[in-house]
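Record pair follows.
FIRST:
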Amino acid sequence: MGTDLNESPKREVSLVLNKYEGVIKRYREFLPEIDDKHIITILEGNTPLIKARNLGKIINPDIEIYFKYEGLNPTGSFKDRGMTMAISKAVSEGSKAVICASTGNTSASASAYAARAGMKSFVLIPEGKIAAGKLSQALVHGAVVMQIQGNFDDALSITREIAKDYDVALVNSVNPFRLEGQKTASFEIVDELGAAPDYHILPVGNAGNITAYWKGYREYHDAGKIKSLPKMLGFQAEGAAPIVLNHIVKEPHTVATAIRIGNPASWQKAVAARDESGGLIESISDEDILKAYALLAANEGIFCEPASAISFAGLIKLNGRGFFKKGDVCVLTLTGHGLKDPQNAIKVSKEPIVVPCDKNSVLKAMGLK
């Protein structure tokens, strides 16, 4: 019998649509069980691992540098990996609303996944201290956004109290299902490289991500999928470096708003990840964060938010101390997309050139005449 030409295109489309179904279905053997009917996904994960093309030659040609670009998740940050788990679990338990405290990315992710699930979302943010790109996401997804006259840590304290006393699911990273979802990024890295990197470098704000990555690497190791484990290298902004200083920072400040946190919820777990892996957690100045941010965009075509660029700033700092040896493989997590915080992109860039409306003036501005 011949092929039905009317059915063939439909079948091809179906195959494409079913190729990837989000992190829960892809890695369900390593995740808490959630029934298919409760899974809320926007096809998060499956983000690119981009090998440095130009910056490796500039910084250190003897090491391999890869960027895990989490800014290409559905809402533009790594938070989506954990949020699919947290919201799915909330749905399975019959919750009708979720709440979170946020410096931006969590609010965007929580509100998007809540909208997908048909749930109400409530967001508490520090007044005037959230990037416009992130605030706009929470608002457009229909969240009830409340700006409190305090910092992130104050907001998290309030949300924890509300979740304890009322039927509202807390979806910050204190929710263990968030970290379960976030660990899938380490699985993807190993699946692509065929082994764990020598070093994994990432920002440390609320400290859930370094905790989650380490958990994922250890689980893959225990399952026999990798023979060795990476050293975890975390970096905090100098004005928001409680783990480095070993005390709570009551008024954290940094241009990297996503990690402007003075009392990380996963503090002790992050310290454990650092110590168990033989890694470190250090601080970086805002000046060096912005330099790395601009270098990434100008030399690799990768536009990330400032908090993401601290990973690269950290690599530059350690490389200057002769930290790496020939052949080392370094994976850097870039946590969020640059469009989350366009104001800083404008600040570190040259202003557009204003020229008369004629060809010769344009050629002159181009340096061709």
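SECOND:
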Amino acid sequence: MVQRDIEVKLLRTLVAIVDECGFARAAQALHVTQPTVSQQMQRLESIVQAPVFQRDKRPLQLTPVGRELVAHARRVLMLNGEVLSKLSAIQSDQSFSMGCSVHLADGLRNMLGRLAAERPHLRCAMTTGLSSALADRLALGELEAALLLGTRTPRSEVLGRLRLAWFGDAPLASGKSFPMAFVSERSALSVRIIDTLAEHGVAWHSVPWCSDPLSIRASVQAGLAYTALPADTHHNHPSLHPTPAQVLGPPPEPLLVHLGFSATAGETVREAARAVARATLSDLPLVPL
């Protein structure tokens, strides 16, 4: 038995004729000439070995074979679209590992929601940490990209400057010094805090129970210490109270935000990381350069 196959474009033309109510309008919709539409229908009828339209009827009407064929044609066109969509998704699928400074982590919620809606096939294995530690992992090739606060790497792009503000409402110690909470001397934010306090002659001492950003935030929320954080942090954490300007003086100057890449990150990863970075920073108090 001779194998007979129907080309998808013939079925698409058939459906266009039915939907557009005629050969001429179908030709316009498909951006071809009317003779081309007529030739395609002749080809289709030769394949199914039966007339598709009752050409002696006006307006144009389908034959019983034509009605059955249109029903199947719509299903074939839908399946064809689904197959192409799936293949396109596989080809455009992007998977990479990326780090994010803990001080920028409030933007991750918005990032995840936005990318799920706008780029559902983008797969990002995200990890958070101090920028200095993330930079080390970039150098080792353990991460392909990282969103860094105040930390520059050999392969990095500047995205803007993060506005900072003082947070906390804690009593002075007996020696008239302010209790300050920050992570370590390797943190660019900690260095900026210390330099700012020194510049304005503010006496301070470090609280001993803070070893990570979560414990820092907890100590500030508990009224036990002060710190500097992104200027709008209290919007996501209402129990964090901005410190009045007269208490600690001017806030630290904004810190540069960098997007760093590993030595092996290709342009596909770079573009995907830029999309993640834009979504993460979209609602943070970033000052353009």
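COMMENT: Residues 64-92 form the longest helix (29 residues).
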